[in-house]
Fold:
Amino acid sequence: MTRQREAVMQAVLESPRHMTADEIFEAARARLPGISRATVYRNLGLMERDGQVRRVRTADAPDRFDKTLSPHEHIRCPRCGEFQDVRLGDLRALLEARLGRPVGSYELNVSALCDVCMRAGEREEQTHG
Ligand SMILES: [Zn+2]
Ligand SMILES: [Zn+2]
Structure:
């Protein structure tokens, strides 16, 4: 593994979040000053191809990168845009069982407040009576 790829991988592994490519670039640059944005993007593409990270696509926001590779779905917070994991079992297997044929791809868009925004909302309600 190249030093660049190592730095990108570590950046992804050390964050508890689903980071955007730009955020990964910032984190990788902190470990390996001089690494370019293009190098980070290219390595993310290679890591996705090699199954080391999962790319989470969204229609109206930058893609996120996920180090958790076991089957799970994502919930997006409408307030801060953060992603949370939710485990619903293997949805692909469920879909394939229902349809009786292989499923190429599927998308599930769920919007719900994250824990932080949920708590912030509760605090606001208390202050405003
Ligand atoms: Zn939130
Ligand atoms: Zn995830």
